[in-house]
Amino acid sequence: MVEERRRKTLPFIKTDQEIEQDEHHRIEEPPSISYHNDRGNQHQQRNSQSHSKHHHHHRHRQHHRPSHRPLALPHSPESLEPTGAADSVGSLTAGTDSPQQLNSDESDSNRATAEAMAARFHPPSHLRDEAETLKSHRHSVGFDVPGAVHTIITPNRMGVKADRPLDSKLAVIMVGLPARGKSYIVKKLRRYLNWLQYETRVFNVGNLRRVNEASQQHDQSANFFDPDNTDMKRIRDDLAIQVLDQMIDWLKQGGRVGVHDATNSTVERRKLLIDRLRKEPEIKVLILESVCTDKMVLERNFRLKLFGPDYKDRDPAEALLDFKSRVDNYERAYESVGDWEEEQDIQFCKLINVGKKVIAHNISGYLSGQCIFYLMNFNLAERQIFITRHGESMDNVTGRIGGDAPLSEKGRKYARALERFVSQQRASFAYDLASRKVKEEDDWRSYGLEPLDGKKESETIDTRTTQEKIDAKAKELSSGQFTVWTSMLKRSMATAANFDPDVYDIKHIRFLNEINSGMREGMSYEEIQRFYPEEFHTRQSNKLYYRYPGMGGESYIDVIHRLQSMIIELERMTQSCLIVTHRVVMRIILGYMLDWSQKEMPHMLVPIHTVYELRPKPYGTELKKWQYIESVDSFVEF
Ligand code: F6P
């Protein structure tokens, strides 16, 4: 079952070259792709360049971290190349913000700014130390958005150090009793931050416990978690510190956000972790506690554990008892985040009942604020998210990019078929969900466990047949709201024109418009390659950061930023929806939902006349794909 899920969530990866071979429509794609934006390279470079020298109280740590990177550069390996190399391509991409171009432009503007600042602010030598201390306090890493914000700094000049941190690093320490949804929260947070280009990794203590030699010598059942058993407690504390050390190493090597995923349920444990982190003044700390008081959600979470790595081969009823006694052990010693953290002035956030209630303390960093805003906006509703590109447009027929062309005849046919398809899928989803829920309740009963619908067996005598129960539930589910979003471009609005506004909640949204290709709007890839070969090559080698020249021209990163509010809205809403958009936007939304790496995302195959259906689940996103077959005027799964 797990394998089946994994298979379903695997991304459908193809390069643009493959698109050429098997795309059934007439859009021309550029040929060979090479990936230059390798984050591994970037890490190595960064690692060798940044070392912490000063140790200060953690509250001020972001102001003190020196950095030896000479200039504020974009988040790509090319950006770390020497200026000379950048100069050689700078002139070829006039008006663009390609990474190389940025390098050259930035170095010039940095140099000019530095000279002006040096002339105005260079203090006499006896005042320099004081002035430098003041300056380093004044600066904050603060607002730091990869690919969109460049911090201008003064380069080293005679005897005066201008070093200071350029990117923020964050250690998120999770807190919460078992089955409070911590792992679910951290997985989502990791996916979101990575999508925003903050490299994020989760460090799970349970995973180490399951393979660690010291803990393997002991029975891993509830006793191992007894707070009065000092030997076991020492083993668990050691594991937590080992994992924290791995996380710190990774952050120092270029990672941006590390998440320490464990119960960390006592002040003593948290003090251990915080004391270790205080030795790393360049890393900010955010404690994130997940609290769940909703009995039904808790019971559901407990039962999900039965399919997890600790219990999967054990008898369900017996495993549930063991797990509940493990939770009791933790509960006896549990100290919620609060007084101690406030005394220490630590940033923390308590998420209560899946974000229904949120308590935040001393949130001072941009990144921490982003995390909390995101976490306040998700829910666990089961739903369908359909996403498709618009039907074939007249520009697709002639192979031109951008523009605002109407649909072709084929495109209009697709639009009619799409409405029929979504309405059928909507009905069958309601039926499947209803059957699954009714069957799940029957399964719990067969394991000797109470149903999860809130009614005890003895209290309810349901005389309906299983089929009657399914039909009633399906009817209830299918009457729920369904949203249709399109971009504000003609081809996308026309693709959704057959949806009845009385049945669907339809919105045209500018954020969903296609990437703006600036001065290259209306050209074909062949023309760009012929007339602007260097520019064409620069984009192919770093599509993520390449910004089209001219007014309004965008990069993938720019589009990611304008889609941020769409992702938050997708997470916030509980109803199913259909998104009709364009190639770049579709790649980016799928990139978020399916956790595609930034390297592969701009090159994924997302042909027109295909529909992706996504179902958010606790363990990831389930994916189904359909292709429209014009000859039979219907969709087939592929
Ligand atoms: O060709 C269709 C299109 O949506 C263009 O409007 C857009 O510029 C292009 O695809 C984006 O794809 P890529 O990033 O692969 O060039």
Automatic annotation (TrEMBL):
Which residue ranges have biased composition labelled Basic residues? 51-68
Q: Where do the segments described as Disordered lie?
A: 1-115
**Coiled-coil regions in this chain?**
none
Write down the Pfam families for this protein, in alphabetical order.
6PF2K (PF01591), His_Phos_1 (PF00300)
Task: List, as start-end ranges, the regions of compositional bias called Polar residues.
Answer: 90-104
Which SUPFAM superfamilies does the annotation name?
A: P-loop containing nucleoside triphosphate hydrolases, Phosphoglycerate mutase-like
Q: Which UniProt keywords apply?
A: ATP-binding, Nucleotide-binding
Could you tell me which residue ranges the 6-phosphofructo-2-kinase domain spans? 167-380
- List, alphabetically, the InterPro entries matched: 6Pfruct_kin, 6Phosfructo_kin, His_Pase_superF_clade-1, His_PPase_superfam, P-loop_NTPase, PG/BPGM_mutase_AS
Q: What is this protein called?
A: 6-phosphofructo-2-kinase-domain-containing protein
Taxonomic lineage: Eukaryota, Fungi, Fungi incertae sedis, Mucoromycota, Mucoromycotina
